[in-house]
Amino acid sequence: MTMGRLGAWWRQFKAMWPQPLRQQVTRAGLVYTASLVVVMLAAFLSANNLLFLIMAAMLSALFVSGLVSRLGLAGLELDLMLPDHISARRKVRAGIRLRNLKRWIPSFSIHLSGTADSGFDDRLYFPAIPGGGAVEESVELYFPKRGKQRERSFQFSTRFPFGFAERRELVTARHDILIYPCLDPQPGFDALLAAVSGEIEAQQRGRGHDFYRIRPYEALESARHVDWKATAHTGNLQVREFARERDHHVLIYLDLDAPPQLEPWFELAVDCSAFLALRLAESGARVRFRTQEFDVTVPDQGDIYTILEYLALVSATTRKAPDAPDDSIDFQIVFSPNLARMSALGWGRAASRLLGPDALGPDALGPPDSTSAARPVPGA
């Protein structure tokens, strides 16, 4: 009981001090303090002037150490230089610039570390930062979740000059950071992309009607599109290309009407939507992305980052029912926790992939079977 009261008193005592004044006594500091106590007792018990001089020198060294370490951390400014685009669960290179705003006083032996929300789990060491100067260092940041962040806390620490205590000071860097969903392929994502790309190519085969241009023949192309007049004129094989063959139109629909218990599936669906949208857009397809509250076509109404910025902040809601399809799309990819409802609305009648909670995972994203498109979610 006494120890509990003593611990509570100590916590209250620590809370009275502002954060920058908190410090941790090192092992060397404990040994030095014990030695100082011994010298003080000996000086008072023996009334020896020499011991009093030694005690005064030791106290002076202790106070000077605290003053110098406090001056070393004072006037330090941190600037974080981030890339334009950041993806969750992917390490990104960033820059850290540390400025010493003190004009004449340098700072020595400065350690820099990040807190849990900073995305920086390393520890940097700066031997010296001259007065009025700045140093830069390249670091790797890692953000585990998508979303928007504004404040990231870092910690300065130093044991200079004598190592009796480690003085710490928190500094907050304020930048608006938008973190996209994870764009790296997760288990099954590559298989889904390959299957979708193959099905899109199968849908597009032989459907071109609008003449686009004449271009040189490429390996493994069909000979039925060879333009023999252009070939005779140039001496090299030339083929006719049609606009329809180059205009793959893919719709990705993300159903936001997901209950809280399906939050892990919804996050996986967001990651998969971002991955597919990015890869399909990079392949030259026209990608339309829809939810109950968002509708944009890339590249007609924006770029791929328009979709990624939306997916960085999107959240599930149970207040909005999904919409019915409104036009003919070459291929549909639908993420929904209720596939039966989506099928009833008209999704899945054209070439499509309907993916529910039981269709996202390392073993579920393979080629579709004849019943997977309209299979309802258990319990829906």
Explain briefly what this protein structure is.
The protein is built from 9 helices and 16 strands. It has 380 residues and is α/β, with parallel strands linked by helices. The longest helix has 25 residues.
Describe how the helices and strands are arranged.
Elements: H1 2-15, E1 23-25, H2 27-46, H3 49-73, E2 76-81, E3 86-87, E4 92-100, E5 107-114, E6 123-129, E7 134-141, E8 147-158, E9 165-180, H4 189-204, E10 211-216, H5 228-234, E11 238-242, H6 243-246, E12 249-254, H7 263-282, E13 286-290, E14 295-298, H8 304-313, E15 331-335, H9 339-345, E16 352-355
Parallel strand pairs: 3-9, 12-13, 12-15, 15-16
Antiparallel strand pairs: 1-9, 2-4, 4-7, 5-6, 5-8, 8-9, 10-11, 13-14
